[in-house]
Amino acid sequence: MGNHPNVEVFLRNHESLAPKRYRYSDVKKMTNSFKDKLGEGGYGGVYKGKMLDGQMVAVKVLSETKGNGEEFINEVASISKTSHVNIVTLLGFCYEGPKRALIYEFMANGSLEKFIYNGNPSTNGRLGWETLYNIAIGIARGLEYLHRGCNTRIVHFDIKPHNILLNEDFCPKVSDFGLAKLCTKKESMISMFDARGTPGYIAPEVFYRSLGGVSYKSDVYSYGVMVLEMVGGRKNIDVGVDRISEIYFPHWIYNHLELDELGLQGLMSEEDRVNARKMIIVSLWCIQTKPSDRPPMCRVLDMLEGSLQSLPIPPKPFLFSPARSMKDSSTTSEL
């Protein structure tokens, strides 16, 4: 398979924006022939590498079977327009026949996913509450920048713990823009022909258009689900729990928030307790079923950084069950 004409045209038209282009032989050299694998995803593998100047990088090698280059274009197009401390930096790319790779700054602590679930054997335990709170704020800043701060609004469409990378200081960076959509500031709604994202984090309007159009508020929903998972140390939908009332975590946490009996682990101080409660209230606002009821990310930041007393308690969330396959998504119903 040769280079896809769409991709070559795109790269020519965006030459001034696109990062440095590398040959496949360079990529092989910098990764020591793909020796040190950091992870694997639906798109292909990620390998640790080193630039000639000594800078450590993460090289994402896209699977050769992946379509006509749409995800590759998405990633280069969207991330090339960004420059923010909470967005991962794309340093270069390779596009040579079927060989495609994206070269990112290396993030020493890997993905957030490794640090937030209780009983995860791959880590030394959960992060402290101050770190979790700062990570939630950092991700919110990154998303607020994508939605409002850069020249073209970018909706990510795949916000989840796996796609949040952490540097050596646990500063979070939004990564993986393969499903992102670019839209002008004037466009409030996005036309979509396919449900995109990861089950469990996809906003209900992506399936049920009657709830409202698909917009940047879909990222707000995914952010809310993720922050609830950070607080609870468990997946949003957990089929491993015994009682049916506890399967859908937002309901459990909402009911216990009202009773002030959250029983969260590791709260060391009053400040931790206040920040945990703020994270919960904010995330419950973010997962409201109707997009119009969800706050924009600038308001999310205000709420997280403001006083707990000023935060109104949101309405109880509806159960939108995204755990099933996308084709078999159920209707929304309140428990």
From TrEMBL:
Compartment list: Membrane
Protein family according to the UniProt entry: Belongs to the protein kinase superfamily.
UniProt membrane topology term: Single-pass type I membrane protein
SUPFAM superfamilies the UniProt entry points to: Protein kinase-like (PK-like) (SSF56112)
Source organism of this protein record: Vitis vinifera (Grape)
Matches recorded under InterPro entries: Kinase-like_dom_sf, LRK10/LRL21-25-like, Prot_kinase_dom, Protein_kinase_ATP_BS, Ser/Thr_kinase_AS
Binding site for ATP: K60
Protein name (Swiss-Prot/TrEMBL): Protein kinase domain-containing protein
An example Gene Ontology CC term for this record: membrane
Keyword Transmembrane: yes
Domain Protein kinase, chain residue ranges per copy: 32-319
